[in-house]
Amino acid sequence: MNETKTAFKRMKDLPSTHLLGTGTPMCAGCGGLQAIHEIYDILGEKTVFVNAAGCMTLLSVYPFTPFRGSWLYTSMGSAPAGAQGVRDALDILIQKKRIDSRENLNVVVLTGDGAANGIGMSATSGAIERDLDFIYICYDNEGYGNTGQQYSSATPHAARTATSKGPRGFPGYKKDLFSIWASHKPTYVATVVGAEPVDLARKVEKSKKMKGPRMLIALSPCPTGWDFNPMEAVEIGKLAVRTGVWPLKEYADGKVVHTKIPGRRPPVEEYLKLQGRYAHLFRPDRNETLLREIQARVDAYWDGVE
Amino acid sequence: MKRKLLTGNAAAAWGARLARTDYVPAFPITPQTEIIETIANWVDNGEMDARMVTLDSEHSMITAAGAAATTGVRVFTATSSQGLLYGMEMLYTVAGWRAPFVLVNVSRGLATPITLEPDHNDILAARDSGFLQIHCATCQEVLDSILIAFRLGEDERVRLPVIVNLDGFYLSFTREPVEIPDAEAAGRFVSSYDAGNIPFRASAPVSQAVAAIGGTAYSYFRYETHLAAQNALSVYEEVAGEFTRRFGRTHDAVETYRSDEAEYVFVMIGSFATKAKEAVDRLREAGWSIGLVRPRLLRPFPEEQIRRVLTGKKGIAVIDQNLSMGKGGVLYMELASALHGQANVPPLVSFIGGLGGRDITPEEFYEMASVTRTAAETEEIPPPRLLYTKGEIREVRKLQAIAHAERLELEPEK
Q1: Are both B175 and B44 inside the same structural domain?
Q2: Among A209, B219, B269, B414, which residue is least crowded by beta carbons within 10 Å?
Q3: Which residues of B touch A68 (CB under 8 A)?
Q4: Does B196 touch chain A if contact means CB atoms closer than 8 Å?
């Protein structure tokens, strides 16, 4: 990121006024809403959000919206295709001189991890392959949050969800959405978290200047789904980064760069033990096997990073 | 204006071209492919000033179509059968966006078993979606109906997407002489696209298709869509009337053929109705007083016209190329509800045939006329008749025997 000029060097450089309105029905401490707040401030109001079914669908409930820009709800599986239709139509209108180019908009897909990793994958892959000029924001709360946190393919190993309440939690492993995107060779992919707002701001700033398919995957600590006190949301986001569970990185020009490499990583259990979804790893007895496995996976990831 | 031999698919492509379509989201499926191949070639050659994009599925295709129409361009798309059903969620969704565009469906029977030739279960599955439906019997009608459909759907009293339906193979691949309207005249007829009050523009933000939680707001929007669809009945009359004045061809919401003074009437939709016309002529020669009624508009359903042309008859043979499992023919149910409670309602006799492209022969039309007359005379209405011959059952038995023999051949010896 050093090679790029940025307006966001430290916290005080971040926008002090906010675009997204208040009074939404999101849960207290929603890490997804925090990330969207921060992203929207930098994207600006010349945007049309194309939404797929999920928590954030409830941001715009007739007749209210917190957005100053536009909004189109599509379906759970086809938000990138909705973005295609809007983008193509705006291009045609400008090209045929039926509207002024000042009427142009940034087309932004907004979905949860369920749509991004599962039901919307075909539409997403197609949009990247067609080199659609859009930004995709995935708020990743690691489960089907809006329906009560059933596991999704973004749920981490061993997490308890409404559909994995057994002693070992979710048996699968979190799908690597970052690499799936990167394998399509899009313009840009980045991971972000609202708890690291300067890193997030630089990535939004950078992606906003680019053309083509761009993805921001925002880890979204979810008090109701992950079972923690809403006041811990920011701390959990920071711990996700410091323990190495959520690597902050970006893909551009065929290269992956880590934007924040944690120095001495605290044990992952510092992150896990704050969340009720991992309580079964600590009580009634410590599940050393699972804790070791989770730590080993994180260590192995960072061993592979230069 | 020029006259040319065109397939139904080519006629559909001409309709899109003459309507000055801006945008064509596509996904290939047999037997629709010739439509999008033709358009793709025109776009590549600069003969059509449109953008065509192949999406990853019909679900995505219909999403993109609705989104682009909402943003403010004229959109045409086409699919068939499994594709229409794959996009079904979005048919309902984009109709609610009140985003007018035209979708051509080339009818094809639905799985299972998977097949290629036509019947109407695909299009009738979309009956309650909010899309208006125009059903064609000739290639000329396909082209003309697309021009009419754009005007109808875009009318400010309607603002709904429209499906123009043609039968796979029988129309899609059959060449008929088609008059291609002059491009200028067609352009004047459709006029320019108006995005209405919901386009996405930087200077005028809008929220489109937001959630409506609670039945009160939800019901309001659903009722609005229904009322708009009903408005399409009178708007259709206006638009089709103007089409006749400009181009000289008449496409009534309900076509009648030798039915005005007839005692008995066949009722059916789609291209097989041309077979019914032939049967009417032969039966007339044999002394029958019989005709045909063919609804072109299925949504909105032209109940008044249907009542006007069917009450007072001696008997009606309703021929459905579809099958609602456990009930019967969908067109039969539509007619029964339209006629219920009216005076002088004739007996309705239900026939199911032509599934998966199976022919309906002249002899079967004669038999249906005869069964209907008997029902009228005896006042005993038979249960729905599934058209099928002894020869066909013998054919299936043969296929089963082969399948059985082949399986025995492969089974290890016991």
Answers
A1: yes
A2: B414
A3: 205
A4: no
